[in-house]
Amino acid sequence: MTLPPSVTTVDPKDVRGEVLRSFVSSPRLAFVLRRLGRAVISLLIVLVASFFMVQFVPGDPVRAALGPTAPVATVDALRDQLGLDQPLWSQFTHYVSGLLHGDLGTSITSERSVAETLGERLPTTLTLAFLAFVVAAVGAFPIGVATAVSARAGRRRAVDLGVSGLLGVLIAIPNFLLAVLLVAVFSIGLRAFPPAGWGEPSQAVLPVLALAVGPLAYLARIVHVEMLRVLDAPYLTTARSKRLPGRLLYLRHALPNIVAATLTAGGVVLVGLVAGTVLVETVFTVPGIGSTIVSSITAKDYPLIQGLVLVYALLVLGVNLLIDLALVVLDPRSTIAEA
Amino acid sequence: MSELVFDHVTVRFRHHTAVDDVSLVVRSGTTHGLVGESGSGKSTLARVAVGLERADLGTVRLDGVDLGRAARARRKVQMIFQDPFAALDPRMPVGASVAEGLLATDRKWSRADRATRVRELLDLVHIDPARASERPARFSGGQRQRLTIARALAAEPAVLVADEITSALDVSVQGVVLNLLRELQAELDLTMLFISHNLAVVRYVSDDVTVLRGGRVVEQGATDAVLADPADPYTRELLRSIPVLGRPLDLEA
Amino acid sequence: MLRTFRSPQGVAVLVGLLVVVLATALGPTFFGDAATTRDIANRQAPASLGHLFGTDPLGRDLLARTVVATRLSVLLTLGAVGISVGGGVVLGVIAAVLPRFLRRIVTAFIDILLSFPWLLLALFFSVIWGATSTGAMLAIGFAGIPVFARLVSTLASSVANTDYVHAARLLGSSPLRTATRHVLPNILPPMIVNTAAHASVTLLSFAALSFLGLGVQAPEYDWGRLLNEGSKQIYVEPMAAIGPGIAIVLTGVLFSLLGELLSESGPRRVRAARPAEVAEATTNDENAVVDVERLRISFRSDDGSLTERVHGVDLRIAPGEVVGIVGESGSGKSVTAMAVAGLLGPEALVESERLRFRGIDMRTRPSAAERRTLGLEQAMIFQDPLSSLNPALTVGRQLTEASEVHAGQKRGAATKRALEAMALVRIPEPLQRIRQLPHEFSGGMRQRAMIAMGLMGSPRLIIADEPTTALDVTVQRQVLRALADARERTGAAILLISHDIALVSGFCDRVVVMRDGAIVEQLAVGDLDKAEHPYTRGLIDCVPDMTTDRDRPLPVIGVAAAEEVPV
């Protein structure tokens, strides 16, 4: 008896999980293997997608890159250099084997090796994203916990409403707009920080802030909501019935139970941060891969775009995997629940 | 005649056997009680009877027809669910929900006939027919359970399967629903498989009883005989665990 | 639905929507000239009364340009949302219709796409379709498809698993009929809510792409492009950038507010209630473990009004006495017990002439010494064994902490005591069990662990709130035996809350019958057959037991027969 097709149930567990489960008895190990499997498949999809991206460009990508005025000979030479005149399959194998050797091709505009460009610019972006994440995470926890505890006690209603309203506004303002505002206020108005560039610590302040404030507010709200949920849970009533001091109530009984949800949200934040670097680097002309991807798309520099898309995708996959592994260590129950 | 027969039914889930070689007969015009604690497989058995679950081994037959093969005959077995709050579409007027039962009759119903029949059914379960156009949210738990009974009756079932239909209700409302079932049984000569964890409730409505534990039949027979003189230690354990009004609980090991 | 739009927030959203619609429809007609008229003499003018947002390098009025840009911004947003929703529904439905194996592949693929942030997906697609407004619309629209595909498949599968869909299937409803009559009506409202919220995200996405120069190209302009151009003259005139920024944020907030409003479930807040000052009552019983007089408990609802749920309850429990409160749902029995324990949340307003536990006034904030007494002398067992123990802490930790905190016991001594308590409630292999997390315990064993937790101090009162309702009868017997053992060992009084009058009569010395927040009758267990109140009699008779006459209908309590509609 199968369910009628239009209303079929979706089993949350995926196929690989089911096969693995019969082999692997430990739910933790099964979880890790499943997530690794998923990462590998994602990686393959990313590889194929970044390769076919150029094939999907309507018309002739080489002509598009060089512009309508470029002589036919130049176009043919570039096409030959990119290997676009070869059959699709050999292009793909060539592409993948190049990747395996660390050869990402050569930029059309700068005629430099893509790998080299990435090597120069990636550390900047990573530093920016990491700093912003630290700021967001360190800021979000105390704000989220404090507002939740205060809201549950319900004494300072006006303050609670004000803080939650402020968080809402900070989440709603997109980071590029915030970046522009920060420049207007702190660089032009107060002349406190430089509006652009990278290298000096003072130059990092505004980009990190612009990138961190939204995620900080978002994360704080997650912590707040999770904390409120836990504070109303029956086991916290049990803890209160033991008349434990507030410190034990919140730190020992409440905090461990918001870890899973907060970590998952942290992953979303971190992934969002990685993407957000594109906009913030553009505003502050930070020489990272974010500002490069925009200029390379405008210039239709396909080899460079391919390399950048690949790196960004890898970053995202890496962050997701990292969060999954952290979940296994910090909150084993969630992995068991999934299995 | 409408006799429901479970013939050596086994249902396996990934790691365990939920129902293990269970045979029982629901005799025509009688109520067969199925009693057991959590994990006894009683609900799985009910789901097999109506086709929501599939038996790995064995068959379920209605008057000799294998329900695993005949989808049409399966509609002659209808189920009343445990949670009356989940069993009615919150966005559908209750009259339309009851009318849905008429689908199973395989007859064409004119609009007027359908309205008349729905009114009769609502009357039968003591719900004011004038409220047919209201949504389930306007009804209490006991009323909703009566509505799902009306929907099941609309299908003109040969056998009704009632799966823990009073366990989500308050005790006073439970009495109302049980009385309704008795009344309907007398009026309509219903054949019913009545499932509950509550031995006293099963005793009150059933002619025959089957005691399940861990997916297996522990004891089976006429209700009076089984409960008056239980042969199996588990049945005795169940019996002595039931609190009796005014008698100190038997807490000895 | 209409009522939600009459709230202040609703009116604000309606007005905002009207402004956006007007600007979209009529903006270019009325402001088109002002937006294109060049005024070189006045170029890059700062904000003034004539030009609220200033002018651009060609002297065109930026406020007018912002208003005119509404049309393109909103239309592109709608287009992209349309693509996301349409594509998502198609993909979600395909995923639902496919055979099991293919379906899993499709959902796994959707999951993988979802793990990438929209901006990366949009950048990817804009490489393919190029940096034009149509390209950006396609890119952002496609980037949103996985979100809706997931939403559709999650919603559809949750509806498909409900009993009412099962019932429809049993009745022979065709898949198509089930989909149109049950699934669609139930997933449409959340879909609409999410679409509105998604429109907000899409609007910001467009602004971002145009801001990066990858969206709308000159001479066309949307808000993102205006922001991009404005940020270049930010040194001269900040309003040039801030103006379009305001339009973006306000419209974005407008869409998400619309979503929130449609969902009709905005953030709910509980209001604090302070216990009202009440004059000290005259008589009191110093010896009683629990001494409650005229207890009234009200709860604040969302609109701020108070609803009284317990109306003047008197309750006294002598040392070592076992008292049972019986009542149906809504009778106020649990709330009363929680008030006795002083554990009601801030949403409850508790008033009473007297509310004492062993002489401690529970109406005021307890002192440090009183907290110690309460921590050691009161024990609680709740209905749901799944959630009353902290899932993140070992059972041992949860047992020992009260005596460590309040009795100043060392870890080792406390652990030794915990092992004894676990043995007393007959938890097998306490040495292993004490290191385990609650989810490794069965339901009955968790309830016994809760009882053991109460034995860690020197309990004078054990409050058990429907401790066996979630358990099988044979397990119920084990839990009650543990409770009886605990009482025998410590001499603590017990307050047992239950809906089962037979259970209470078999376990307690005295029965208190509650209904609708008031005590109907109090009786010694031996006097139950002499109960006078018809409700008590009804409760006794309406439950079938092993001796009920099967040939007669069950007696029915008056109100239950009529069964009023819940308010």
Automatic annotation (TrEMBL), chain A:
Membrane topology note: Multi-pass membrane protein
Q: Which InterPro entries match?
A: BPD_transp_1_N, MetI-like, MetI-like_sf
Q: Where is the signal peptide?
A: none
| UniProt superkingdom | Bacteria
Q: Which CDD domains match?
A: TM_PBP2 (cd06261)
> Which Pfam families does the record cross-reference, listed alphabetically?
BPD_transp_1, BPD_transp_1_N
Could you list the residue ranges that cross the membrane? Answer: 36-57, 128-149, 161-190, 202-220, 258-284, 304-330
- Establish whether keyword Cell membrane is in the entry: yes
Q: Which UniProt keywords apply?
A: Cell membrane, Membrane, Transmembrane, Transmembrane helix, Transport
Compartment list: Cell membrane
Which SUPFAM superfamilies does the entry link to?
Answer: MetI-like (SSF161098)
Residue ranges constituting the ABC transmembrane type-1 domain according to the UniProt record: 122-323
Similarity comment: Belongs to the binding-protein-dependent transport system permease family.
This one is known as ABC transporter permease
Q: To which species is this protein native?
A: Cryptosporangium japonicum
UniProtKB/TrEMBL annotation, chain B:
Q: Name one Pfam family in it.
A: oligo_HPY
Say if the entry is tagged with keyword Nucleotide-binding: yes
InterPro entries according to UniProt: AAA+_ATPase (IPR003593), ABC_transp_ATP-bind (IPR050319), ABC_transporter-like_ATP-bd (IPR003439), ABC_transporter-like_CS (IPR017871), Oligopep_ABC_C (IPR013563), P-loop_NTPase (IPR027417)
Xref: CDD domains = ABC_NikE_OppD_transporters (cd03257)
Q: Does the keyword Transport apply?
A: yes
Q: Which GO terms describe its molecular function?
A: ATP binding
Membrane-spanning segments: none
The ABC transporter domain extends over 4-239
Give the residue range of the signal peptide.
Answer: none
What UniProt keywords are attached to this protein's entry? ATP-binding, Nucleotide-binding, Transport
Family the entry assigns: Belongs to the ABC transporter superfamily.
Protein name as it appears in the record: ABC transporter ATP-binding protein
Print the organism lineage: Bacteria, Bacillati, Actinomycetota, Actinomycetes, Cryptosporangiales
Automatic annotation (TrEMBL), chain C:
- Family label: Belongs to the ABC transporter superfamily.
Against Pfam families, the record matches this protein to: ABC_tran, BPD_transp_1
Instruction: Name the chain's protein.
Output: Dipeptide/oligopeptide/nickel ABC transporter permease/ATP-binding protein
Q: How does it sit in the membrane?
A: Multi-pass membrane protein; Peripheral membrane protein
Give the record's keywords alphabetically. Answer: ATP-binding, Cell membrane, Membrane, Nucleotide-binding, Transmembrane, Transmembrane helix, Transport
Xref: SUPFAM superfamilies: MetI-like, P-loop containing nucleoside triphosphate hydrolases
Its transmembrane ranges are: 72-98, 105-129, 135-152, 196-218, 238-262
Its annotated compartments are: Cell membrane; Membrane
Q: Which Gene3D superfamilies match?
A: MetI-like (1.10.3720.10), P-loop containing nucleotide triphosphate hydrolases (3.40.50.300)
Q: What is the lineage of its organism?
A: Bacteria, Bacillati, Actinomycetota, Actinomycetes, Cryptosporangiales
ABC transporter domain: residues covered: 292-541
Q: In this protein, which residues make up the domain named ABC transmembrane type-1? A: 70-259
